[in-house]
Each structure stands twice: as structure tokens, then as C-alpha cells.
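Please think about what follows:
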Amino acid sequence: MAETVVVTGTRIQATGFTAPTPTTIVGTEQIEKNAQPNIYNTIAQLPSLQGSSGTSTNTFSTSSGQQGLSNFSLRGLGTIRTLTLLDGQRVVGANVTGVPDISLFPQLLVERVDVVTGGASASYGSDAVGGVVNFITNKHFEGVKANVQGGISTYGDDAQYLLQAAVGQAFLGGKLHVEVSGEYDHEDGVPAAGFGESAPNGRQWYRATTLLDRGPTVNDGGPRYLYRDHAQAYAYSKYGLISKGPLQGTAFDVNGNPFPFVYGSGGVPTHNPNGDVTGCISGFCVGGDRSGGVGIGASLKSGIKRLNGYTRIGYDLNSDNEVYATLNWSRVTTNNQPNPGAQKSNISVSCANPYLPASVAAACTANNITGFSFGTDNAMLPNIHVNTSRGQMRAVLGADGKFDLGGTNWRYDTYYEHGEELTWIRVRNMLLNPHYSQAINATISNGQIVCADLVASANGCQPLNIFGGRTPSPSTLAYLQPSNGPFQHTHQAQDVVSLNINGEPVSLWAGPVSVAFGGEYRREYYRVEADPYGNGSANGTPYNDAYPADPTLSTNGSNWYAGNYHNGTGMYDVKEAYAEVNMPFVDTPELGKANLNVAGRWTDYSTSGVVWTWKIGATWDTPLNGVRLRAVTSNDVRAPNLSELFAAPTTTTVPSFTNPFTNPPSKLTIFQNTIGNTALKPEIARNIEAGIVLSQPDWMPGLSVSFDYYRIKLTKGISSLSADQIVNFCRGGIAQTCGAFDLTGPTPYVNVQQFNLASIFTEGFDYEASYQFGLEDVGLPGRFVVHGLATNISSFVTDPGIPGSAPVQSAGTNSGNTPHWKLLLIESWDTEKFGIMLQQRWFSDGVIGRQYIECTTGCPATSTNFPTLDRNHMAGAFYLDVGGTYNLTDQMTAYFKIDNLLDRDPAASPQTNTGLDVNPALYDLVGRVYRIGVRFNL
């Protein structure tokens, strides 16, 4: 009986059918050889994936909710534009953006991963703009298998161990199939280093690289921006620095003793009210006392723990039909440090502060001042830690099989899926801004140092000595960083009902016509609840025992230094119907075989109405042996997600807002409401792909090669605007923004929302080749396989749709996600007893930003859209991995893997402020990693 091929990216199931959309398949063998603790790491190495999110990204984030979240981004279009499926079925989102977390997937039973590098909305619906990543599990596994793995980096961190086991058995004469799997993965991650320039545990690559801004009016022939290592801010220091006025340049050591700060660059404080430093540029010097730098104080990799349980029960009603149920329960916890201390600049400090050293107080008197401006990292405070927990329960009840109707054999699959995702985010050691302001305003009363604010004192205020690094008292810490901390609880739910039918109802001159059709209903819901100190206690939201009422805190929320989460809720549903036809129209020895593949989908969103998607593709197996041509064009969509439609609202008061509708423009106070926009429409993308495939030609049967061109144009892209932009765009004729504000009513407001204004254009080429051959002719056992994939991005242009802004070309920008070239090459030699694998990962040199004009002298006039820069280069990277296996018995295999064998350091990715100046989306921040393990298969 001929095998029926199920190809991700199409709904057609037919013998010998080849889809026109390019698909990369990562099988069990490659997954096992790569020996990663999380299958996400293996798939994310594919060159077509750019900008994926993993445990090395978002580590410096507090409020995004994406810490430790693992999800894919195809073509650099973002995780929200890549559809990730499990056995062709949707998975409930692990974030309000709707993206799932790969860490929550059952991984041991995955037998392959299909990566469709092209639009597939007509087949699978919304979000498949960049493509589809589909995890296919072994649905009838029988036996017992297990995997035990451990690993550690060459720096003694990121210790990891993985335990996996699966059991499968058939009962009732083979009719009942039961399989159960479980796994636990523990990864310590890479901790934050703290202050200064020493990267954690002996890493030597961090240099606080920064782009110093000489200002938009520079006209001396030099560049506006200067690329410099060892940048040091001059508005704050580790233990405190007087940053303006007559005492500017007075710093404090860990014991609170004053000393002259060393600025670097030969910098000399001007002692003026602006706090300028001669010899330094726009807030930064080079060199000097760099102990207060905070850029390397973020975790280089989040710690993660994964616990996953999976069960599938299938029952064969007869030889052609099965009913089944699956249950997946998973929990992932992650932790990271976003930054050390809690940096504060331009603090107003009184010279009467009782903690101030006597010599500095005397200097205040001598200079006839009563206070000064102060900046500090608050290094005496415990560091912030973000702890995230994601729990998922996903159940599927389905049936698949075939039936005869009208003389045609039809196949079907149908299922109902319900998924629940619960996410908890808790932040420890977070500063309450109002409490900090009250605690540093100290005075003496009855011989005791107390808070000067009587209301604050009556509500528990404890004074803080901000001069130096002395550890505050437990009562002061409890007041500044209460144990309750910022908190967010999110509940997401997804329900899907799907029916798909396909068959071959008629035959034409070139063969049978394949037809697939079906429908789907999907409901997405979320609700988020946050602590009242972040969310606010207005509108009936009560304080509680964990967050008691405090008159010194704002009832509008946003009281925390960071992590100000807010309440929100939202829901939408989708109704869809589709049809797909594959028609062979040529099948002769002289002309070869050619098929036409056409699909269309009708989708009705409850928030935005009806949208149509379609696909037209063709394949031609030419008369030339092994040569196939393929091409496909499609119209794809990404619907706005829950976060964009129903973002948790926040309100702030903005004084002196400019009203451009009066003559002359006037100033007024407005309420700025940051909210979702239920009027958003789906993004629309036009995909084109065309290529040639050479598959197993007679003259070289082990060779397969493909070359494909791709082009994606996305319009109506969803983008954010500021309050000023929203008002001014309306005045300039962009009607879409006019309903977002009212400046004439009794309570003027502007709703800061997202709008369908942006566009993205990208094009490039994909290359894939493999060659395998036996080694008997050279007297060696086994087979040798070479497999390579490469992606060339020739263009990636983003247009924000904002008047006056220029489209940004980011192809070859190594500070982002889209290098010009990205390559993955694997060589393996496998025998019955052992196997050896070499893997090379490489991406090309690039620039910091394509908007910069590189020059050192004779520079053209700088501009906002095209500023000048003296060095616009970022080196690419080459990573060498090596692995091997040894079969101890027929059922037991030992293996090892070394990632980044040469311990390649990341290149600097400078910013216009000191921060973590590396790009974890491209570069390896961990370094060399060793792994060993044993697999069992009984």
C-alpha cells in the first residue's frame, strides 16, 4: 500500500503529493544528536528562524511577562507572526500576545518538527505570516524509553540536568493504545555579575560599549555619535555622587566617606546647574571610575525548571477509524535579575540631612547652598529578582480515519481542544518609589533620625542613609522593598473545534484531483489581575491585607520602581472555513509531472469582521532526472492579539500637553490612558516563494539540494504611537487616530493605542543541501552525512507609517535579528557502534544600524533619520559544536555534546546608553558548554 504523506503547510493528504511551500524537517535523529535540554534550542538554530525568544533573551526585563518564554520567529517577523502547532493543532498562548511556550510541550515523544518557511494562513489560519513550526509526536509509541542528561558551562555555571521517560503499550488485541511521558529539566542559568565591568564567573568580554551622542547640531565635520568602550555615566555612581552645583564631583565610598570622583576622558565638572562635565559627552565619560556601571548586572541567561506530563489514549473503532484523547500538564518556572540596585538620578537632597558627612555639610554652608542634586545606584539595596511561573493544562478529544462516500475514499480528522494557561509573576526586592522619596528625606526628632514627612512617619516610614553602601536596617528594607512586591496573575483560555476532510473524488488526464475542506471555531480569553500598588486602587479596586492602604501611595498605581502591572480582560472568537484543491495537469515522460495547488479561507473575527486568505502554488517534476521547480504565492493575515485589543489600561496625568488645534497652540493638562484598541484590523501579508529542487538524481543518488527565493510584504502592521503623535497625526489627516482623544471636554484625554499604520518588506534566499554515502569503498564502516542550510536576507525594511520618519533597512543589522547570512552545517559519521557529529553555526559581519552614515572627518550634516557615526561595524560569529554517541548495548546509548567548543565571545552591540551591550538574539552569551547523557530504548 502506498504511503499517505501529511505535509505541514497544506491540508492535502495524498499519495506522492509534494507541497509547493518549502518545508525543513528536523527528525528524531538530529534532535537527539544536538543533545539540548530543551528542543527549542535545536529548532532555533535553523537559519530561517531569526529573533526567536528564549532563556537568554528578555533577562533584563521586569514588566514584559516574557522572561524565560521560548517561542519562534520566522523570517525576523517576530514571534507573533509565526504559528506554532502541536500535531497540527493550536496551543493555548503562554503570554497575552498569544504565543505558546515550547518549554511546555511534551518533548520526548516528538518524532519530527516541520518548519514551513512561507505563508500558510489559507491552510491553518491567523499568525502564519512568516510560516509554521509544527511539532509531530509519535502517536502509537510502544515500549519504554528514557533519557538522562547533565551539563555545565566552562565557567562553572548554567548547571543543568534532564530526566525524561516514556512508556507505550497496546491492549485489547492492539485496539487500545496508551502512552505516557514525563520529563523534568533544571537549568541554573547564568547569574548577573553586579556593578562595574566584570562579567560573571570570569567572562572577559564586557566593555560597557556605548554610542556617545554629541548632539543633533554638531557641525565641526565630525560624526554625531562616537563608538567608545568603557563608557561611564557622570550623573550617578555606585554609592552616590553629587551631580550638579558647587559640590559636583563629590562621590561617596562604601562607608559613606566623600572623595573626588574620577570622571574619565580628563573630565572636569563645571559645577553649573546643568551638571555638565568638560571633556565628556551627553552624560558619559570614557574610563575613570566605572564601578557604578549596571549594564552587566542583568542575568545572562534565566534559570528555568520544566516539569511536563503527557498522556495519549487511542482506541481503534475498526482498522480505519480511531478516537483518542490527550492530556498535557506542564509547569515552567523561571528566574532572572533585570538589573542591580535601583538607579536614581537627579534626586534633591537637603544639606540638613543627618546622614550627610560633616565635611560635606560644611561645604554646603561655605557655598551658601541648602541642597544638591544626587545620583546613586543604591548598591546598598538587595537586587531585584523576577520569578515567573507558567502552568498549562491542555486536553484534546478527537477522531481520525476514513470512510467511503460516492465511491470515493475520504479521510477526516476532527478534534476539540481546551487549554488553560495560568501565569504568576512575582518580583522580589522591588522599590516603592514614594517610600524611597520619603525615606531619604530624613531629619532629627528627639535625638533620633526619622522621616521628615509626618504622614509618612505615621504610616511606617523608616529613614534611609543613601550616602555609601551600609546595609539598611530590616525595618527600612521592609518599608522600601516590602515582601509583597509587584504581582501579576494571568489566566488564559483557548477552545478550538476543528473538522478537516480530504479525498480524491475525481481523476483527470494527469491523475486524481485531491480536495481538502473543513472548518474551525476558536475562542481566546484572558484575564489579568495585578497588585493594587502597581494597578491602583481607584475604580473600586480594594487594597487588601497583603497590600494595605497607604496615603503616601498613589491610588492610580505605578508606585513601583518597575513592574507596575495592571488589571485587564478580553475575549474574541473566530469562525473559519476553508477549501484546498490539488490538481495534476501534466504527467507524461516527455513533460514530467506538474500539479496546481490552490487554497482559500474565509475567516470571521468577532472584533474585526471577515477577512479572506488564499494560496496559489505549483510544482513541476521536470523531465530532467531529480529536478523539481516550485512556486507559491499567498495572501496571509495576522489578527490583533488579546494584548493589542484589550491591553490592561493605565492612566497618567500629563501637564502642559500641547493642543495643536488652537491658534496659537495652547497648553492643557490631560489624562493619558494607555489602553487596547478594539478597532484594530488584521495585518495583511503577501508572500511569494519560488525555487528549484534537485532530489536524489540517478548520477548522485545521495544528493538533495534546494534553492528558494522568498518575498514578504506586510501592510496594515500594528504599531504604537505616543500621545503627541496621535493628536498631530489626526490634525495632519490620518483619520484613524482622530477617535482616540478629546481635548475640548471637561476631562481632556488621549488614549494611547496601537494602530494599523506600519509595513514590513523582506526578501532573500534559502539554501539547503544534503549528501550521504556509505564508507565501504574506503574500508570504513557506516555512513557519512553532510547537511547544510543557509539563509540570505537581502532586504528587511520596516516603515512605521509615521509622517516624517524614514523606512529603516535592517538587513545586515547585527544589533537586531536579521544578519545578511546565517548558516547551519552538520557533518556526521554513524556506524552500528558509534557516531560522531560536527556542527558549525555562523552568521556574517554586519552593522550596528543601517541608518547610520559612517565617517570620522568631513562628515555630512547629521539628521534624525540618518545620523553620522565613527564606527558602524559588528563582527559576525562562528560557533563549532562537537558531539558523539556510543552504543553500550542494543538498548543503551551514551553520548556527549560540547557547544561553542572554541568559547567564542559575543561582539559588543553598543547603545546610546550603558546597558547590556550584547545581542542575545544572535550571539552566544554563555560560552562553552559540556553535556553528557545516556539514552535507553527498550
